[in-house]
Design goal:
The chain has helices at residues 3-24, 40-45, 47-50, 88-91, 93-101, 146-154, 156-162, 164-186, 227-235, 273-292, 315-323, 333-342, 353-364, 418-433, 444-451, 464-472; strands at 54-67, 70-77, 80-87, 107-116, 122-133, 190-191, 197-198, 210-213, 218-222, 240-248, 260-269, 296-299, 302-305, 311-314, 373-376, 398-403, 406-413, 457-463. By secondary structure, the chain is of the alpha+beta class. The protein folds into two domains: 3-133, OB fold (Dihydrolipoamide Acetyltransferase, E2P), CATH 2.40.50.140; 162-310 and 371-479, BirA Bifunctional Protein, domain 2 (2-Layer Sandwich). The strands form four sheets. The chain has an eight-stranded mixed β-sheet with strand order 6-10-11-18-17-16-15-14, sandwiched between helices. A hairpin with a 2-residue loop joins strand 1 (54-67) and strand 2. The longest helix is centred in the middle third of the chain and has 23 residues, at 164-186.
Length: 490
C-alpha cells in the first residue's frame, strides 16, 4: 500500500470516528429532504436584493477555517460558492460543535442572513445548520497531473466536485443538445427512436458489438448507426426525422474515439446533400453563437471561425492542392496505386482507385483542415449508401465537414435505387468474405423497403461529442463524455 493510500485510509478512519460521534450525540449524519429557497449564484449576482434577507441554501463544504468561537466556511452548490460566517453565540454550543466537526465534502443545509463582510465578501451569517450527508472519503487537495487525469475519468463524481470548469463543460453539453433539438423542431423535423439492438448492423463501416438474445436464440448487434431504420421511416412517409442517441463501435480508444458515443442523424425527403450542407452550416454556427456568445472559438491556441460561408472543396481538388496528384487524370486502379507509392504509401494489388483516393486524403489533406471545410465528391467505393453523382457516377453526392483536422459531420444525397443499393451491398458482402470486418452486411429488408419507393432525400450525421469538444475547447473526447470507456484497473 502506498503512502498516499495509507494517509487516505487513516483520514477515512478519522471521518468514520466522527460519524459515530455524531450518532452518539443524536445527530443523523445522512439527513432528510431539505427545503432550500435560494442558489448561491442568485445571492452573488443580485446582492442588493438579497442583502439582509434570510435564505435557505444547501451544498457541499469546500473549505473551513475557525478562530475560537467563530469561523468561516465555503459552501458550494450547482451554481457556485458562497462564504458562510458561523458564530457560537448565534448557533449555540451544540450546533457550533457540529461546525467544529465538519470535514471538507460534508453536505449541509444552511439558514442565515445575507450580508457583506468588512473585507467586502458576500456571505451568509449562519443561524442554523443541518447535516444532510457526511463525506467519508477525503476530497483531493490537488487534482491534476497525468496519473490524476486517469483518476478523474474513473471518478467523475469527484472531478465534478473539485473542478468547476468540468461541471461547466457538461452543463454546456446539455445546452448544446437542447439548442440542436430546438433548431430542428422549429424546422419541422420529428424526433424519433430506432432500435439500439439490431439483427443486421448497418449504416456505417465499423465493427459492431455482438450480444445474444436467449429467448429468440439469435445474435443481435449494438447499433453502429441508426441510418437504415431512419430511412425506412422516410419510405413510410415521415418526411423529416431526426434522432440524437448512442452508437456503439468496437474500435480503438483515442482522444477522438470512444466505443460508445452520441450522434445526431437526420433525414429530409425531397432534399439533397446541398440542402444538408446549408443546414449543417446554419445549425452549427447558430449553436456555437448561442452557447458561447460568438461564432469564434479559441481551440488549443487556434481561432476557429464558424462565421459563414464555409469553404467548400471537392476531395479531388483538395488532394491536388496538397499533394500535386490530379485524380481527374489518374483514372484507373493501376495509376492510383502508382500515385500512392510515389507519395510513400504502402499499397496492395487489390487496392482500387476510390479507396486509394480516400487513403491519400486522410494521410495528406486532413491535417490541413483547421477552419470549417466541406469536402465533397467521395468515391463510390467508400460510399455504399450515397447517390451517385449524375455527371460522374464514379463519385457520389456526399460531403464530410472537417474542423480542427477532424471529421465532425457526414452527409449525402441518399441512394434510393434499390437495384444499385443491392449491388453495392453485394460488393460489401464480398469484402467481408475477404476479411474486412467493417464492411456492410446484406440487408434484404432494407432493399425491400426501397423497392416500395423512397423519395429523393438528404441525410446528415453529426458527432455530438466532437461538436461539444469544439464548442467547449476540449482536447479529448473523454473530457466531454461523463463516463468514458476505460480499461479496468489492475
Amino acid at each position: 500500500m502506498s503512502e498516499q493510500e495509507i494517509n487516505a485510509s487513516e483520514l477515512k478512519q478519522v471521518r468514520l470516528d466522527k460519524l459515530e460521534e455524531l450518532r452518539a450525540a443524536g445527530v443523523e449524519p445522512f439527513g432528510q429532504k431539505y427545503e432550500r429557497d435560494t442558489m448561491t449564484q442568485q445571492i452573488t449576482d443580485d446582492f442588493d436584493t438579497f442583502e439582509g434577507r434570510e435564505v435557505r441554501i444547501a451544498g457541499r463544504i469546500m473549505s473551513k477555517r475557525r478562530h475560537g468561537k467563530a469561523g468561516f466556511a465555503n459552501l458550494q452548490d450547482l451554481s457556485g460558492q458562497i462564504q458562510l460566517y458561523i458564530r457560537q453565540d448565534d448557533l449555540g454550543e451544540e450546533k457550533y460543535d457540529l461546525f467544529k466537526k465538519l470535514d471538507m465534502g460534508d453536505i449541509l443545509g444552511i439558514q442565515g442572513e445575507v450580508f457583506r463582510t468588512q473585507k467586502g465578501e458576500i456571505s451568509v451569517h449562519v443561524h442554523d445548520l443541518v447535516y444532510l450527508s457526511k463525506s467519508l472519503n477525503p476530497l483531493p487537495e490537488k487534482w491534476h497531473g497525468l496519473k490524476d487525469v486517469e483518476l478523474r475519468y474513473r471518478q467523475r463524481y469527484v472531478d465534478l466536485i473539485v473542478n468547476p470548469e468540468v461541471k461547466d463543460v457538461f452543463i454546456k453539453r446539455s445546452r448544446i443538445i437542447k439548442e440542436i433539438r430546438n433548431y430542428l423542431d422549429a424546422k419541422g423535423f420529428l424526433e424519433v427512436e430506432t432500435p439500439m439492438m439490431q439483427p443486421i448492423p448497418g449504416g456505417a463501416a465499423a465493427r459492431p458489438f455482438i450480444t445474444h438474445h436467449n429467448a429468440l436464440n439469435m445474435e443481435l448487434y449494438l447499433r453502429i448507426a441508426p441510418e437504415l431504420y431512419l430511412k425506412r421511416l422516410i419510405v413510410g412517409g415521415l418526411e423529416k426525422v431526426y434522432e440524437i442517441n448512442r452508437n456503439f463501435r468496437n474500435e480503438g480508444i483515442s482522444t477522438k474515439h470512444n466505443p460508445e458515443f452520441t450522434m445526431l442523424e437526420l433525414y429530409q425527403a425531397y432534399a439533397d446533400f446541398g440542402d444538408m450542407m446549408d443546414l449543417t452550416e446554419d445549425l452549427i454556427s447558430n449553436t456555437v453563437e448561442k452557447i458561447n456568445g460568438s461564432k469564434q472559438v479559441d481551440f488549443e491556441g487556434e481561432i476557429v471561425d464558424f462565421t459563414g460561408p464555409w469553404q467548400r472543396i471537392s476531395m479531388l481538388d483538395a488532394i491536388n492542392q496538397h499533394t500535386g496528384v490530379d485524380f481527374h487524370t489518374v483514372l484507373d486502379d493501376v495509376g492510383a496505386r502508382q500515385a500512392a507509392v510515389k507519395l510513400g504509401l504502402e499499397v496492395h494489388d487489390g487496392d482500387n482507385r476510390g479507396e486509394l483516393i480516400n487513403l491519400i486524403f486522410e494521410e495528406f489533406v486532413e491535417e490541413h483542415l483547421v477552419q470549417p471545410t466541406f469536402i465533397y465528391g467521395h468515391p463510390v467505393e467508400i460510399s455504399p449508401l450515397a447517390k451517385r453523382n449524375a455527371e460522374n457516377p464514379a463519385f457520389t453526392d456526399r460531403f464530410e465537414l472537417f474542423v480542427m483536422r477532424r471529421e465532425i459531420a457526414n452527409a449525402f444525397s441518399e441512394l434510393n435505387d434499390p437495384i444499385d443499393q443491392k449491388g453495392r451491398f453485394q460488393k460489401q458482402v464480398e469484402k467481408r468474405a475477404s476479411g474486412d470486418g467493417e464492411a456492410h452486411m446484406m440487408d434484404e429488408d432494407y432493399i425491400n423497403a426501397l423497392e416500395y419507393g423512397m423519395p429523393p432525400a438528404g441525410g446528415l450525421g453529426i458527432g455530438i461529442d466532437r461538436l461539444v469538444m469544439l464548442i467547449t475547447a476540449s482536447s479529448s473526447i473523454r473530457d466531454v463524455i461523463l463516463f468514458p470507456t476505460l480499461r479496468p484497473r489492475e
